[in-house]
Amino acid sequence: MSAVVAVFAPLDKPLSYEVPAALREQVAPGVRVRVPLGNRRALGVILELASAGVEGLRPVEEVLDLQPLLSSPMLAFLRRAAAYYHHPLGEVLRAALPAGLTAVKTRVNIVTERFYRAACAVQDPPGARQREILAWLRGREEVPLSEISRHFPAPHAVLKRLVELNLLSVREGERRRDPFLDQPVPVDVRPVLGVDQQQALAALLDALAAGRFAQFLLHGVTGSGKTEIYLHAIAAVLEQGRQALVLVPEIALTPQLVARFRTRFQAACARVAVLHSALSEGERYDAWRAIARGEVQIVIGARSAVFAPLPDLGIVVVDEEHESGYKQSEGWRYHARDLALLRAQGSAAVVVLGSATPALTTFYRTQAGDTGYLSLDARVLGRPLPEVELVDLGGRRLSGALAPELMEALSATLERKEQALLLLNRRGFAPYLLCRECGATFRCPNCEITLTYYQSRRRLRCHYCDYVQRPPERCSGCGGTSIEPEGAGTERLEEELAVAFPVARIARMDRDTTSRKGAHQSLVDGMEQGAIDILIGTQMVAKGHDFPRVTLVGVIGADSSLNFPDFRSAERTFALLTQVAGRAGRGTLQGRVLIQTYAPTHHALACAARHDYLGFYEQEIAFRRELGYPPFGYLINLVLAGNQPLQVERCAAELAEELSRKAGEVEILGPAPCPLARLRGKTRYQILLKAAARAPLHRLLGVVDSRRRKLPRTLSLAVDVDPLDML
Ligand SMILES: Nc1ncnc2c1ncn2[C@@H]1O[C@H](COP(=O)(O)OP(=O)(O)OP(=O)(O)O)[C@@H](O)[C@H]1O
Ligand SMILES: [Zn+2]
């Protein structure tokens, strides 16, 4: 008997091993095995078994699972995913499984503790203290003993009794650090759905009742109540006894959404698992097993949650489907939205892609009829969209970062005791230091990029590799001493505003102020409780927040993202502006948006100001059609990187030449240095493959696969199928 094994290693194909007689009862597709690989040991997953023996195979050494870890639909899904992305299957499986299951070493010891959860029973226990503790637990998810003891001294006897009465369940588990668990659950408001919400929901319910794969775009303007539709559709899925998967671009930035799900489904006793990066290896493993056993009804998580092993997946929601956070940027460069579609096909599930600014490629599919189109074109309760004004900076010199119009609007907002959000998509004090005498800037020694200046800590820092240095006293080029910060980042803006509005309570939200645990949450709380008047931030402030008292949104430097060397820069700018504008006037108060720009006539700005997605789409799609960019063509980007610049350049040239000889209908652009030609000390070259159909591209990648084996060890070659950014 032999087994075909996908080994967790960068190999082009699965390997065959002999199954010794002693292990025959234990092997099955989907179980992990330990096998020899060269002169070491590796783990892998059995894909297939064959009864006929083959001469000369090395033996499987150990079988590690009693039952298959990956069901056959999951295995089929991952095989299709590996083929689509031209990524080694073993590496794909490694990415899909929790880390503790793919390393040869066994996992570390974990501190455990008891967890209590109120059972679904309605009767009350006899004792007053029993009732008190039970009532408290009923308003929460699973709570660890340490937490209960903080609120109720010496609760052990009472807890024990409640467990005996079957009013509580208890389990021994690893100590949780789930930041979402400690949060008090908000009150569940269940608004009556508006007419267009009902229509959209009805289409989803029909598709769910049919029990077949179907995909929908839920295109709803900001504040139109998309989340409410997800909640209703998921309730229907749970009633069918199936499970739901909810993908969000970044879980740490989504506390409000998670809280809404928890509250809504608590009454139904549905278990909601949140997969986030703060989970330890052990916690992730426990969550994974519970999901695989069907004990969890709803999984919420960022892109890697697309691999959560829900056994009977009924619906996948991809919220903010246009977000680039769904694309993995290193290693296996998958896109979670696209994988969600692939996965749903195999599980006869319904996919809902939600956005106020759908990706152009997604919207195009609705026009072609491949994707159902559900639209919510007004805000809930007939609330108006905010008024957007473009502040043309052309030919003007500002004394600070803010134009007088925006300053005035800010003070009016403060006077009315309302809140303002300001977007400046750049952190730090200034994007660079400039020598006034010779014009030199200070660059990272490892990357092709200027160092960001932080005034508060007197440091220069690289945002790509985290290189840090003190700001120089003199210019290394000319010896001059007038070195000054150029341009503004959020830190500088905060300082400027503190001077202009000394009594206002100003806070800043960016990667620097939210890296500490709980910091993002406390900014959200501050906004909700009215403890902050002006919130300044990078694109983080544009994402998903629902702060009803925000009536002014200001955008500073809206054009910077237009200048990126990327055909998607207009699409990104339009989405960012529309999303941030959508944070204004979500409550009962009318909102206003001011956008400072040097390019007021650019369609990304003009259309965002009119809330005109269709207008933007039509202009942009014409441009894509002309140049053969997605959705009219398909791209694969090859990135070669290495420490020796000449070697990288030569290998890139050789590869491009070999590809050109076999190109057929595929257009080959490059090789050229990447826009970030040096990153973390490595020189980078790219070759872009472009074609009107996918098949010839995939055929041509055969060349890359065989070439990859011959590359010198000092070089890496990344294959990026459907690249999103090509920096
Ligand atoms: N039919 C309704 N009637 C009243 N309020 C509603 C209704 N539907 C949703 N809401 C409320 O409106 C607010 C905005 O809804 P929601 O967050 O779902 O919008 P969204 O479309 O997801 O917004 P965005 O894309 O801007 O984040 C929420 O506070 C929600 O509770
Ligand atoms: Zn760097």
UniProtKB/TrEMBL annotation:
<keyword id="KW-0547">Nucleotide-binding</keyword>
<comment type="similarity">
    <text>Belongs to the helicase family. PriA subfamily.</text>
</comment>
<dbReference type="GO" id="GO:0006310">
    <property type="term" value="P:DNA recombination"/>
</dbReference>
<keyword id="KW-0862">Zinc</keyword>
<dbReference type="GO" id="GO:0008270">
    <property type="term" value="F:zinc ion binding"/>
</dbReference>
<dbReference type="InterPro" id="IPR027417">
    <property type="entry name" value="P-loop_NTPase"/>
</dbReference>
<feature type="binding site">
    <location>
        <position position="475"/>
    </location>
    <ligand>
        <name>Zn(2+) 1</name>
    </ligand>
</feature>
<dbReference type="GO" id="GO:0043138">
    <property type="term" value="F:3'-5' DNA helicase activity"/>
</dbReference>
<feature type="binding site">
    <location>
        <position position="478"/>
    </location>
    <ligand>
        <name>Zn(2+) 1</name>
    </ligand>
</feature>
<keyword id="KW-0067">ATP-binding</keyword>
<keyword id="KW-0347">Helicase</keyword>
<dbReference type="GO" id="GO:0006270">
    <property type="term" value="P:DNA replication initiation"/>
</dbReference>
<dbReference type="GO" id="GO:1990077">
    <property type="term" value="C:primosome complex"/>
</dbReference>
<keyword id="KW-0235">DNA replication</keyword>
<feature type="binding site">
    <location>
        <position position="465"/>
    </location>
    <ligand>
        <name>Zn(2+) 2</name>
    </ligand>
</feature>
<dbReference type="InterPro" id="IPR040498">
    <property type="entry name" value="PriA_CRR"/>
</dbReference>
<keyword id="KW-0479">Metal-binding</keyword>
<dbReference type="InterPro" id="IPR005259">
    <property type="entry name" value="PriA"/>
</dbReference>
<feature type="binding site">
    <location>
        <position position="438"/>
    </location>
    <ligand>
        <name>Zn(2+) 1</name>
    </ligand>
</feature>
<comment type="subunit">
    <text>Component of the replication restart primosome.</text>
</comment>
<dbReference type="Pfam" id="PF00270">
    <property type="entry name" value="DEAD"/>
</dbReference>
<protein>
    <recommendedName>
        <fullName>Replication restart protein PriA</fullName>
        <ecNumber>5.6.2.4</ecNumber>
    </recommendedName>
</protein>
<dbReference type="Pfam" id="PF18319">
    <property type="entry name" value="Zn_ribbon_PriA"/>
</dbReference>
<dbReference type="InterPro" id="IPR042115">
    <property type="entry name" value="PriA_3primeBD_sf"/>
</dbReference>
<dbReference type="GO" id="GO:0016887">
    <property type="term" value="F:ATP hydrolysis activity"/>
</dbReference>
<feature type="binding site">
    <location>
        <position position="447"/>
    </location>
    <ligand>
        <name>Zn(2+) 2</name>
    </ligand>
</feature>
<dbReference type="InterPro" id="IPR014001">
    <property type="entry name" value="Helicase_ATP-bd"/>
</dbReference>
<dbReference type="GO" id="GO:0003677">
    <property type="term" value="F:DNA binding"/>
</dbReference>
<feature type="binding site">
    <location>
        <position position="462"/>
    </location>
    <ligand>
        <name>Zn(2+) 2</name>
    </ligand>
</feature>
<dbReference type="Pfam" id="PF00271">
    <property type="entry name" value="Helicase_C"/>
</dbReference>
<dbReference type="InterPro" id="IPR011545">
    <property type="entry name" value="DEAD/DEAH_box_helicase_dom"/>
</dbReference>
<keyword id="KW-0378">Hydrolase</keyword>
<dbReference type="GO" id="GO:0006269">
    <property type="term" value="P:DNA replication, synthesis of primer"/>
</dbReference>
<dbReference type="GO" id="GO:0006302">
    <property type="term" value="P:double-strand break repair"/>
</dbReference>
<dbReference type="Pfam" id="PF18074">
    <property type="entry name" value="PriA_C"/>
</dbReference>
<keyword id="KW-0639">Primosome</keyword>
<feature type="binding site">
    <location>
        <position position="444"/>
    </location>
    <ligand>
        <name>Zn(2+) 2</name>
    </ligand>
</feature>
<dbReference type="InterPro" id="IPR001650">
    <property type="entry name" value="Helicase_C-like"/>
</dbReference>
<dbReference type="Pfam" id="PF17764">
    <property type="entry name" value="PriA_3primeBD"/>
</dbReference>
<dbReference type="InterPro" id="IPR041236">
    <property type="entry name" value="PriA_C"/>
</dbReference>
<feature type="domain" description="Helicase ATP-binding">
    <location>
        <begin position="207"/>
        <end position="376"/>
    </location>
</feature>
<dbReference type="InterPro" id="IPR041222">
    <property type="entry name" value="PriA_3primeBD"/>
</dbReference>
